[in-house]
Amino acid sequence: MTWENIDLHHKELLYERFRNISEPLSEYTFANIFLFRRTHEYEIGRNGEPVIRGKTYDGKKYIQPVNNLQAYSKEKLLELQKDAEFFFPVSEECLALLDPATIEYTSDEADSDYIYTREKMATYAGRKLHKKRNLMKQFHEEYEGTSRPICGEVKEDALYILEKWQDQADLPKEETDYRACLEALTHCDELVLCGEIYYANGKPCGFILGEELNSETYVMHFAKGLVGFKGVYQFIFNEFAKHLPEKYKYINFEQDMGKESLRQSKRSYLPDLLMKKYRVRFKG
Questions:
Q1: CATH 3.40.630.30 domain range(s) in the chain
Q2: Where does the record place the Phosphatidylglycerol lysyltransferase C-terminal domain (predicted)?
Q3: How many CB atoms lie within 10 A of CB 2?
Q4: Tens digits of residue pLDDT in 13-70
Q5: Tell me: the pLDDT tens digits for 239-275?
Q6: Helix residue ranges, H only, 130-253
Q7: CB 118, CB 241: distance < 8 Å
Q8: What CATH superfamily is the domain 113-254?
């Protein structure tokens, strides 16, 4: 099989295929594959149906099918597996459909997607989330918070936030998701992304950008808030959830990549589900 680097022109080939896959994991969108193609060294191979090859955060090569695994014959799976170490990411639902006698599998907590109900993020209800409510209240007491869809002329405000956020991150651009986020804002329409930009007393303070993952889940690819606006993340998460159409029951905040600061932050919102992603190898 020959491999080529993922590019924007592959959208025509991959977009609808990803839409038709039943996997509920954040990697199964064209935008995700395109935006993080450098991070994961994504390539596309075509020998009949296209497949994606990538590299995990711990440096392992894997195959990501652009179809449900059970749609492939055992012979085809073994053939594809020759070009990588395993198939990834595979959901728990898909794993349950595979014959356990024919596979070996593992999972890494750092890969798991954090799933929250839209209602939880729109209310911060309950005693355990009182700190989130308090921080949001402090934001509202200090600022008049407003929001607008990311499109047209306000995209410049989102670019301003991204640059400011990168400066505040105190890390080189290669160690943050700056470049992926910049491309997401640049190609927002082509990648079918949507989101909101937020203002505090008229000043840009944060934005959220993502897309529909499936009919009941929105996946949040980027959330940026500026230091200096206390409670900004609590405000933008809450505001976004309130504005999200009610058909979306869940918001997928993606994985923590094993970064302790991200893990603590995401867990502090009490995820309703940690969606495991399995690495599956078929026995020859």
A1: 3-108+278-282, 113-254
A2: 21-280
A3: 8
A4: 999 999 998 788 999 999 999 999 999 999 999 877 899 999 998 999 999 989 888 8
A5: 999 999 999 999 999 999 999 999 999 999 999 999 9
A6: 130-142, 155-169, 178-186, 232-243
A7: yes
A8: Gcn5-related N-acetyltransferase (GNAT) (3.40.630.30)
Where residue 197 falls (left for φ over 0; alpha for ψ -120 to 50; beta otherwise) is beta
Residues 194-218: tens digit of each pLDDT:
999 999 999 999 999 999 999 999 9
Cis peptide before 24 (omega within 30 of 0): no
Task: Please tell me whether residue 150 adopts helix, strand or coil conformation.
Answer: coil
pTM, whole model, 2 decimals? 0.95
Contacts (Cβ under 8 Å, ≥6 apart) of 1: 45, 46, 47, 51, 83
Q: Which whole number is the average pLDDT over 144-154?
A: 91
Query: What pLDDT score was predicted for residue 48?
Result: 79
One-letter amino acid at 51 equals V
Asked if CATH classification 3.40.190.10 holds for the domain at 3-108+278-282, the reply, yes or no, is no
Those residues with Cβ within 8 angstroms of residue 9's Cβ, 6 or more apart along the chain or in another chain: none
